[in-house]
Amino acid sequence: MGEHRFYLAPERWTSPEGLVVDGQEARHMTQALRLRAGDDVALLDGEGRVARCRIRRTDKKQVFLDLLEERRVPRPASLPVMALAFSKAVRRGFFAEKAAELGAHAVWLWQGEHSQGKLPPQAAETWRAQMIAGIKQSGNPWLPEVRALAGGVEELIRLAARADRRVLPWELEETSSIIGPSRLGLPGVTVYAIGPEGGFSPRELESLDAAGFARVSLGDRILRCETAAALCLGLHWWASQLPDHAV
Ligand code: SAH
Q1: Where are the domains of the chain?
Q2: Closest ligand 1 atom, CA of 194?
Q3: Could you tell me if the CB of 225 is within 6 A of ligand 1?
């Protein structure tokens, strides 16, 4: 594989002009990295396709590439969805990078009653851009899907109804019910609901309970929400990599 990785959205792989990268990706190639005709790069479509390409030519705004070799990485069997309550304080870059590295299937930003600030209208877009940076950096060929849920916990519950498992990390849960391998890394979709820095409201907890979210502890220390989310993804990733884990 070429050393540098770039993203090209899936619908752009069939353009009659061939593989053409523009915008920020092209600037990154030609201006930041000073890549030129004859240099090799890797292209990712975020849906499992990884291509080794050679730069044919560049102009002011675009880079034209020839395909050398392409492979498809199958979608993983275990698909963790991180439903992270929105907060202005969340370190987006940090979390997006960890989500891409640790193989989040999706990230749902939801508006909690105790969320600090309101989910901005462009939230999904800005988070998505950061996820793209994350897959380029980590080489994970699957881009986590990003959704912004303005409809609060109700919308989260509606979407999670289709998942195979629902987990609710809660800081006041007894440490005896600490999350264990029986819930982690299993095939299918597992949704983790993480509350905002202000915690879940009693009403949200009640609705999540009623929707079948299983309360678990992450130990007897209160973690920041992005730490709790990254820890769940890390544990899930670890369990999914165990040689004979539940598959
Ligand atoms: N408002 C709370 C802390 C919320 S921490 C307080 O200050 O008391 C943000 C979120 O991270 C929580 O809603 C929960 O989903 C998760 N979390 C943090 N620490 C946790 C722990 N020890 N066990 C389980 N979940 C935890």
Answers
A1: 5-72, 78-240
A2: 15
A3: yes
Instruction: Give yes or no for residue 218 CB within 6 A of ligand 1.
Output: yes
Distance CA 102, CA 183 (A): 17
Q: What is the mean pLDDT of residues 2-28?
A: 92
Cβ atoms 188, 165 nearer than 8 A:
yes
* String of DSSP letters for 15-71: -TT-EEE-HHHHHIIIIIS---TT-EEEEE-SBSEEEEEEEEEE-SS-EEEEEEEEE
**What is the 163 CA–ligand 1 centroid distance (Å)?**
23
Instruction: Enumerate the H helices of the chain as residue ranges.
Output: 23-27, 92-101, 123-138, 152-160, 202-210, 225-241
How does pLDDT run across 188-235, given as a tens digit for each residue? 999 999 999 999 999 999 999 999 999 999 999 999 999 999 999 999
Superfamily of domain 78-240: SPOUT methyltransferase, trefoil knot domain (3.40.1280.10)
pTM of the prediction? Answer: 0.94
- Return d(Cα 162, Cα 184) in angstroms, integer: 18
Q: Does domain 5-72 have CATH number 2.40.240.20?
A: yes
- Residues facing residue 63 across a β-bridge: 21, 58
Edge-to-edge strands of the sheet including 63-72?
5-7, 40-44, 49-58, 63-72, 19-21
How far is it, in rounded angstroms, from Cα 55 to Cα 39?
6
Distance separating alpha carbons of residues 50 and 11, to the nearest angstrom:
14
Q: Is 76 in the pocket of ligand 1 (CB under 6 A)?
A: no
Averaged confidence pLDDT in the chain: 94
Percent of the chain scoring above 90 in pLDDT: 87
Distance 170 CA to ligand 1 centre (A): 5
